[in-house]
């Protein structure tokens, strides 16, 4: 893993686009030579495939991909193709690895110290992993967990003024989610959801949920 310094982004672009010669550029920017040697090592040491991965867009990266993926004057095949990072992962992970990765992300999403928006991202990752193996049961469980997390995010302050009808709708959504979460075995999330929705519940709804659901889960 090597990041091209910001001072070399434009010089690298000029090199790969053929606007300057390597000798002239190495004379003014010696580090370019070191980077080219690293690139040469990567290209010549790989057996079948070589992946270039960028974590964020850059001038040098965009220019390199433009050079690698464009056809020459004879319309010959390109040196490389663009790939979605998820598609690349799907090529190199086994079914068991996808399930293991999905479960790990789902468990992290349930951790007490995890922020809700981070939990959402972890569950999105978990759902994607389960979908790669057609594991519908685990994917459905992760989707239900994601739905509850999203609902809890809606309830976070600052909150708009809610009238009786709004609160009644929240009660109905919470009750439906809790029922589905229990069916999926996500009891810890049921308790978290109850704490989040409690300020919006009527006295009757709160007492009924505590009696019928929450007390049994806390035993």
Textual characterization of the structure:
- Helix content is 68%, strand content 0%.
- The chain has helices at 9-16, 22-28, 31-45, 59-69, 85-92, 95-109, 116-132, 136-155, 164-183, 187-197, 203-218.
- The chain is built from eleven helices and no strands.
- It is mostly helical.
Indicate the low-confidence ranges by residue numbers. Answer: none
Nearest-integer average pLDDT: 84
The helicity comes to: 55-70%
How much of the polypeptide forms β-strand, as a percent range? Answer: under 5%
**DSSP strand count:** 0
State the secondary-structure class: mainly alpha
Described by the principal axes of the CA atoms, the overall outline is elongated
What distance separates the N and C termini?
50 Å
Radius of gyration: 26 Å
> What about the largest sheet?
none
Q: Element order, helices and strands?
A: HHHHHHHHHHH
What's the topology here?
Layout (H helix, E strand, L loop, with lengths): L8 H8 L5 H7 L2 H15 L13 H11 L15 H8 L2 H15 L6 H17 L3 H20 L8 H20 L3 H11 L5 H16 L1
Q: Summarize this, please?
A:
With 219 residues, the chain is an all-alpha fold. Helices cover 68% and strands 0% of the residues. Helix 6 (95-109) runs antiparallel to helix 7.
